[in-house]
Specification:
Layout (H helix, E strand, L loop, with lengths): L1 H8 L12 E5 L2 E5 L3 E6 L6 E4 H9 L5 E5 L2 E5 L4 E5 L18 E3 L2 H9 L8 E2 L2 E2 L3 E3 L3 E5 L3 E6 L10 E3 L11 E6 L2 E6 L5 E5 L7 H13 L4 E5 H12 L8 E6 L2 E8 L2 E8 L6 E5 L1 H8 L6 E5 L7 E7 L2 E7 L7
Antiparallel strand pairs: 1-2, 1-4, 2-3, 3-17, 5-6, 6-7, 8-15, 9-10, 11-12, 11-14, 12-13, 13-25, 15-16, 16-17, 18-23, 19-20, 19-22, 20-21, 23-24, 24-25
């Protein structure tokens, strides 16, 4: 059980920076923070101590029913046959972890939690705009989105606003969530409480100038563009892209061609050529250069059986439309120039 708890909070540590490389144990919980985000998980531990998370996690993973004991300034992790000892970091040298607010939390459930979790997995840590990072989830009263230089994906359509103001937070805030949570803001942080497990997450609100107008324009275009739409099976399309990615390396691209009720993906990659096709419910003639990896990330958010690809001119973005459990998904994939 402790091994699972440590694996959850490991995402929120930074092994290369002290004190953000620590696991913070206290009676009833384990916690970690990397400075921008943090997480605490209920636990059966009864001691208060701080030790390097990576080493402690590795040790606990080798033990059967580990017993965690603090003796002076040494933390013991042991079972019947094995014992590990860790020198603890003095509590007086550590900053206090933030405390979750007890009021002002808004419950979220069902499809919106699943979509937020899926969006958290497709951001790009290297993407930036105006000197600020795009490695974030953008939350607004009307939509939530992830954007990079190659693609964006947004979700909208719920009845009640998730947030009252526009904010950006690190993707780790929502990763892995799939049930009812409560969300709130306090001390310039977003707070997320898993109502079933009592897991608590927090993250600093990021000061990033986001391209909100681009996302809102995309949402409008997705709704308005008609006439060159192609419906494909999500499972078949995902498999086609996975096959292309077997040979693809880095920023290579492929040609996406739609004609005669068939969608074809073909590429001449460094390690070989690929050509595959699936059926499509339209006779639209279109040919666009794409990065299959970008399509793959978009598809991670789509949880419906089918999606719609909308085409314009060869050098215009591909628009992606889908709906699932009342949530409207709208995406855009930037084209790549095809020489022939």
């Amino acid at each position: 059980m402790l091994a699972k708890e440590l694996s959850i909070i490991a995402r929120y540590s930074d092994p290369k920076r002290s004190p953000f490389n620590l696991v913070r144990l206290s009676p009833g919980q384990v916690a970690a923070t990397n400075g921008n985000a943090g997480c605490s998980v209920p636990s059966s531990v009864t001691v208060e101590a701080a030790v390097p998370l990576r080493d402690f996690r590795r040790a606990v993973a080798t033990l059967k029913d580990p017993d965690i004991v603090l003796k002076r300034s040494t933390l013991h992790a042991k079972d019947k046959a094995t014992s590990f000892k860790f020198k603890t970091v003095p509590q007086s040298t550590l900053f206090p972890l933030p405390t979750a607010p007890t009021t002002g939390m808004t419950p979220l459930a069902g499809s919106i939690v699943s979509v937020l979790s899926a969006l958290s997995g497709i951001s790009d840590q290297d993407a930036s705009v105006g000197g600020g990072t795009l490695d974030a989830i953008r939350l607004t009263p009307d939509w939530v989105a992830v954007a990079t230089h190659g693609y964006l994906m947004a979700a909208s359509g719920w009845d009640d606003p998730i947030v009252s103001e526009r904010v950006s937070v690190v993707p780790d805030s929502f990763v892995g969530l799939d049930k009812t949570v409560s969300i709130g803001f306090d001390d310039n942080k977003i707070w997320i409480v898993d109502d079933e497990t009592d897991q608590v997450r927090w993250a600093n609100v990021l000061a990033t100038a986001w391209p909100d107008s681009v996302i809102e324009d995309t949402l409008e275009v997705v709704k308005a563009r008609t006439g060159r739409d192609v419906v494909v099976d999500v499972s078949e399309f995902t498999n086609l892209i996975d096959q292309a990615l077997v040979l693809m390396e880095g920023e290579e691209f492929a040609a996406l061609t739609v004609a005669d009720e068939c969608l074809e993906l073909s590429g001449d990659f460094k390690h070989g050529k690929f050509d595959g096709a699936i059926s499509a419910t339209d006779e639209t003639v279109a040919r666009v250069g794409v990065n299959p990896a970008h399509l793959k990330r978009i598809l991670k958010v789509v949880q419906s059986d089918t999606l719609t690809l909308s085409f314009a001119e060869q050098n215009d973005p591909i628009l992606v439309k889908a709906e699932w459990a009342g949530i409207e998904l709208a995406g855009m994939v930037m084209p790549v120039y095809l020489s022939k």
